[in-house]
Amino acid sequence: MPDAKVRHLRDQLIRAKVYLSLGSTRSNAHFIRELRLRIREVSRAVGDATKDSDLPRNVNDKLKAMEVTLAKGKQIQDDCSAVIKKLRAIVHTAEEQLRAHKKQAMFLMQLAAKTLPKGLHCLPLRLSTEYYMLNTTDQTFPNQENLEDAKLFHYALFSDNILATAVVVNSTVLNAKDPSKHVFHVVTDKLNYAAMRMWFLANPPGKATIQVQNIEEFTWLNSSYSPVLKQLGSPSMIDYYFKTHKANPDSNLKYRNPKYLSILNHLRFYLPEMLPKLNKVVFLDDDIVVRKDLTGLWLIDLKGKVNGAVETCGESFHRFEHYLNFSNPLISKNFDPHACGWAYGMNIFDLDEWRKQKITEVYHSWQRLTAMEVGDTPSRSYNIWNRTMPIDRSWHVLGLGYNPNVDQKEIDRAAVVHYNGNLKPWLEIALPKYRNYWSKYIDYEQPYLRDCNITP
What we know:
single chain, seven-stranded mixed sheet
């Protein structure tokens, strides 16, 4: 094995530390001095090595010298029960340290995922300044007559991340057979509205049409209409998502992300009201990259279903029993614990069927009836779990934001790849092997990016 010698040396260090702590060997001053010398030599030789080729040339001499010293320790200490007791104590201590490090690593990973890099903080400030310096006539987008043309291909994208939104739009347009038939409906928050508009004014998406709206333009979307808005502003909900240090650690830490407090994360449930003249729309998350033409999505017969999506049954934790509370009689009565979940991030929605089946009302009723977290996965499950048409898995491949072992063949066949998980491609913690799929759609020579020191 390429690390056989490294393992042997580390085992020697463990045995040496056992002898160093036993009463019978500690009383032998000459042996203890020799043992400490050998521990220093082997520790220096091993260092941070992970394979044998990392070790120094003279490592064999250190290994043999340590074996001689350990043999002396064995002669001095012949009480096996004392050695076993010490080894058990070492194992117990190591396990406790491992648990503590895992807990800390999970917390730090969540913290890194929630932290906005300096460059992405600088970008909207720079863009907003430029936008408000424009004349009013220069603040409008062309081809706005396409926004309600149901014959075109429409996309909905809700985000406060300008660079991520740019990648989604760029990758879709560059892989489209006829970009002029594609229309993007981007909604952002008040803070990023001017910056988002300025980005696409300065970097128009070719022949495609784009619309950028401020969520506050939807005056009908208020707490008297939407139960989720009332929940989002409640003190208990804010405490749940922000004061995680007070919460008991649990396996659903990933759902305790403050992003779920943003109404942008729930706008998908109001698509029919937002786009009243359209009959179909493709929803795109801001952490996806389009790699092939998507027009085939509009040809899929959803057979009366509301949502077309890739199922995620291949992974057991996406069964309903793993994230719905079946101790609640409302849940156990209405849901199958073994039912498949499905992927969100690239979905084709039939808005006509949505209106006909009154899905938004169904969503509101579940919000009122159940004391659930507002997190993404639970809320979508209550809404349209049995109104979803499975589509071919090649349309949407997930896992690039947490899984370093996604099948390369699946990625190559995928129309859309999704960085779901904490390791987003715009963060330093991203998986390097997947970053290029995202960064290839960014022009890092763009002046705004250079000014904010945003680099590959």
